[in-house]
Amino acid sequence: MILRLFILLPVFAVVLFLYGAIVNIGYLEENRCRMTYMFEHPQYTRLPVQGNERFPKYGLYAYSEGSLTQRVQQRVFTGAPVLFVPGSGGSYRQVRSLASVALRKGLDNGWQTHLDYFSVDLNEELSGVYGGYLQDQTDFLELCVQEIARLYGSRGRTSRIFIVGHSVGGKLAQAVVGRQGSVVRHVTGIITISAPVDKPVALLDHYHQSFYDRIEQTWRANRSVLVEGEAKSTTGKMPLDGMLFVTVGGGIRDMIVHDGLTSSRYADLHAMTHNIPNVWLSVDHLCAMWCLQFVLVMNRFLFSMVIPQGRGSYGFTEEKHIQREKAVRFLAQPFAGTNVVDDDTAFVHHHPEQEDWIEDIRRSYTERHRAGMDRTRVQMIRIVPDKPAHRFLRVEVINSEQDDWLSACAAIEVYGNSRMCQRAVSLVNYTLPVPSSKFDRFGVLLDTHQLKRWNPSWTHVLVKIPRSFKPVQFSVDVFNPSTREINLTMPHWLDYRGHTILQDASPDDSFYRINVRGMKHTYQTIALDLMAVTCDGIKGTVVVKVHVPWANGYDRYAFHEELNQTTVYIYPPTEKPPSHNDEDVPIQIDVYLTPGCRYRIRYAQSLRVGIARIVQQYLVLLPAHCIALVLLAFKDQLTQTAPDDPVFVVGKLRSSLTKPGPLMMLLATSSLIAKFLTLFKSIPPVEILSTPLVVSVLLHLAALGVLVIATLGLWGAIAFCANFAHKIILRLIALPIPVMSSTFLSCIHKFPLAIAVLLVAIALTACGGVSLLCAAAVYFVLLSKAYEDYLENFVFHTARRIATRLFGAARERTEGEQGSSRQRLRRRRRPENETGDELMVINFHLPLFFLVIMLALLNVPSVITWAKNYHYANTLLPDPSLVPALLVLVCLAVLWQLNTPRNVRGYELLAALLVIVAYVSVLYCQLHVYRLNFAIGIVFLAITVHQIIAPKRREVGEEHEGEDGKGDGNAEEGEHEQIENKRDNN
């Protein structure tokens, strides 16, 4: 019963992973992006590039529409150049949305300020999963930058380029400027969008590893790094410090590059789309290229840096501090914690004869003017020191057209019957935009007691609302922060109960702060439910801001309008660093409510989003766990026989997988081994320490569930679909003559060495991944044939036993004691199952077949790349799958020819090696997935060498056989030799 319950856990883990994948695909968050439209048909004009003969697959294009195409064809470029680099599998046509909006903006302003968009065609190569293209793409991108510089230089201009890279294209941009030389002089800034900057999504081949390592070494030596908020100490200005580097992430909807991978330690600014003003939403990986809200902000940012260069030409400013100020203004939340008065620009001047000065003594109130206001209004909010109930001030204005709408002063002057001040100090640096899709909203949260300590003469905070014909609204909320602060602790990972933290908020309450402690892992998620119980004739709007102290640039806004109930998911975008583990720093959740509504707030741990984030971030670790469990199960199969047993027996794979021992051993000892290895500086750092224990357990269980389900499915395929598989192989061979097809299939059964040689030829002339897929198909045919032989022998032996019982009773009685001794000798020298030889062959080769399948799946990206690039080259170069494929195919040729397993010694040493490789897979191959190729190759090499050179087992009872010759000794000797030969062959 316990074993059956244990089997249910891996199956349940697989179901959870499937559920998380489904949630990631389309049920995380609604896509609220608006489409980008254009008014004319887009035109992509190909530009000649010097040195393009080296890269005939690639190209450089200039974007245009309508009549402007003629200017592009004449090579007339007068705008600021922007070069777009697509990502893995991306097209140069993805520049359309960005370029079309920029072109329309240039036409609207009379072509006074405009951008010239260029796009690189990288043949839609899958550089995200195959790193062999990265070097060529970087070389061609360098040629494109030089060509654009020549286009502008031919007219006497030296306009520097902004590179916008999407996904892997952002990493290519970072690589090309890291080469120094002339490229750096032509590039003024880089913007990466949804790009895995400092860490890749998965290292599927060593080309990715070397590519990232080269970039890291170059940038570390040539650019300052921000460490704990302070610039790295340098002897002088670094060569790459003068270039603006901005990284942008897509948020929770991007299931390909999760938000934790989009930031860089070298970036001047990191922003998430859900925190960018006027975007305020998460975008998926491809949506970032056409989402209108984001496209508009990106173009506004680029246009803000354009300056005239004379004779109707324009370029980007080369002042780094100006570029960064513009990036903060358009892509981040401009906020200053202090207010410093330097000159008259920090003051707001008032004209009391044109304004209404009103002081309201209420602590919380909201005023709506649906028809606008015919006079400017100055709302005075008194600063009351030393009273906790008047400490914090929350103000929000809607549709205020005044930039400096918030200020403070000492209201000691009198005009009419009102106190006033003609000059006030601007507090605009304290204000923040509030997400809204319909109105211009701004808000502020002030500590008035702190303001009073800094400026003792101040008496009032002023809110200035200019006259307007638009609907205007402003709300004021003065409160004691202790009454609006709620402290929570992250529930235990098994606790999914709902809890009410605010039963019925007052209609005047507009702000609450929730502090969540205990959240440090990225999979930990809280579902915050906000329900508008009653509203006084208005539509409820909720804005939630999430601030994670250890993740700069990851502040997240979530807003929901005109909804009675909404759910916001709270999670840390990055793991809490070890330097913060000793600090009990909470995640802050600021909740902005609509005045006039009563709200109820509940929270619970979210299994739905938590599992989705585990699948999104840790699915790439699953192959290492699968291979480790297969190796441990194979080890258990090979250790079924005692060392002094004369006959070697292989256990069943399914029985070995369902034993809880190997799984528990891997879980219990892998973390301990990892911590022990960290004590040695010469040993490379292990990868398992970065994975939370709960995630590791779930990954192990999911991997085990996948293997158990796959084993049952494979046995079913072997048992019931062997004939069907033969037909499939015939169709794959696609020989027109049936006789030749049958002959070829018989060669698979009779001459596996010839088939292995053919597979090696395929690996050398086409792709190693293709040969591995073919090897898996051939392996399945051999296993199905072995199962057919097992069934035939089973039927034969069963019929012989029935015949013996029906017709051979008299003969058995005459044999007497001589026959009984012969049967006892047989039972001692062979397994209990008389037809167990063929079944033992299947049990031995089944885990090897699984390893071949996994190796083939790991190299599927190479196969896809080879097939997509076939019309350019028949052979994939470079081929990361070639070396492991050749190693495994040569080993398979030997194993298939020897009719393994052989009855030899040394299986204990082989089992020990399997355990070592299993631990290495978990410790060093989770992120570096390509290392699994070599781990599997080492296993096959060790098994092959063992089967060739290991000595045979010594039979127990050979001495007794020579002495016991009572009339039938020679017959028994001959029969024993046949059994021994059969054992050696099997």
From TrEMBL:
Q: Is Repressor set as a keyword in this record?
A: no
Q: Does the keyword Kinase apply?
A: no
Q: Which InterPro entries match?
A: AB_hydrolase_fold, PGAP1-ab_dom-like, PGAP1/BST1, PGAP1_TMD
What this protein is reported to do is described as: Involved in inositol deacylation of GPI-anchored proteins which plays important roles in the quality control and ER-associated degradation of GPI-anchored proteins.
Entry's transmembrane regions: 695-721, 728-745, 751-782, 839-861, 881-899, 906-924, 930-950
Q: Where is the GPI inositol-deacylase PGAP1-like alpha/beta domain?
A: 77-305
Keywords from the named record: Endoplasmic reticulum, Hydrolase, Membrane, Protein transport, Transmembrane, Transmembrane helix, Transport
Q: What class of enzyme is it?
A: hydrolase
Task: State where the protein is found.
Answer: Endoplasmic reticulum membrane
One cellular component term (GO) for this entry is: endoplasmic reticulum membrane
GO MF terms here are: phosphatidylinositol deacylase activity
Region Disordered, as annotated, extends over 954-986
Q: How does it sit in the membrane?
A: Multi-pass membrane protein
Q: What is the E.C. number?
A: 3.1.-.-
One Pfam family, short name please? PGAP1
Which family, according to the similarity comment? Belongs to the GPI inositol-deacylase family.
Q: Which domain of life is it from?
A: Eukaryota
For this entry, list what GO says about its biological process: endoplasmic reticulum to Golgi vesicle-mediated transport; GPI anchor metabolic process; protein transport
**Protein name, entry field:** GPI inositol-deacylase
Every copy of the GPI inositol-deacylase transmembrane domain together lies at: 695-943
Gene3D superfamilies for this protein: alpha/beta hydrolase
